[in-house]
Design brief:
The structure is a homodimer of 153-residue chains. Helices cover 37% and strands 16% of the residues of chain A. Chain A is an alpha/beta fold and 153 residues long.
Chain lengths: 153, 153
């Protein structure tokens, strides 16, 4: 059994996430997904969806065999428990594969690191763009319009 | 093979959607999900996520065997093609099961109509609440704060 680990925040699920997980799964037999803890998301705004709910939704996706929350202090701890053959990186994850590989070797982990390509420039395949669209289409100007609408829908 | 049909908009997927689909699937062997067309969503604001993307994400969920877009003019057309044994209604879908059953009979469709209960009052198990949270946490006041932040994160 060839075990694969994919990681990410998976806020506001979209087809870019799905593509990353599907491509990751193709590299082996069993796909483990480590979902980032709320408190560990520091390089971008805190997730909209709380960690337990992000975990639940990732676990419900067809390519995913096991989903778990990350460790709050040591990102390598779950990887030591899983001992994957491959760790995949999404196209917008900032890790340098060479640096990550070296850090894995220092922990006696032999996983190969594979970068998964991008899913292309589709309109809403980005949590950030979904957030933008929510604000543009339902933000204060939308609500002001709703409030002046005399028809109760 | 007992065929089940579930229907809905499935905008900004959350565990309430998942619960509805899981409970629907338990009633038979094969779950078909009819995803509402953008133009047919009239009783609430237009979906954030376009119909093709909503379809793709619903199709990726484990309980779902087949997902398809609704008909733009005749909601019964896909049901005539599938000929389900059961049609499930989500807890917040406005159809009256008795009225729907009568309309099905008028089209010679014998499906039983079953209402699936609510998933409870969990915080973000509602597309509307996810939209609210996006606006509260990332709307104009958040962006103003980001713009005055001298640290480029």
């Amino acid at each position: 059994m060839r075990r694969i680990v994919a990681t990410g925040t998976f806020d506001l699920l979209h087809p870019g996430h799905l593509y990353y997980l599907q491509e990751s799964k193709k590299l082996g037999d069993e796909l483990y997904v480590i979902v980032a803890r709320d408190r560990n998301v520091k390089h971008k705004p805190r997730p909209i969806i709380p960690e337990d709910q992000r975990l639940q939704m990732v676990a419900a996706l067809k390519p995913v065999d096991h989903a778990l929350l990350g460790d709050t202090t040591d990102m390598f701890r779950p990887i030591e428990a899983i001992r994957p053959d491959v760790i995949t990186l999404g196209f917008n994850q900032n890790f340098d594969p060479a640096v990550l590989t070296e850090a894995l070797r220092a922990r006696s982990l032999s996983a190969e690191v594979v970068r998964i390509g991008g899913y292309g420039d589709r309109v809403l395949c980005s949590s950030r763009r979904i957030v933008q669209r929510v604000i543009e289409t339902r933000g204060p100007s939308f609500r002001a319009a709703q409030n002046t609408d005399s028809e109760g829908l």
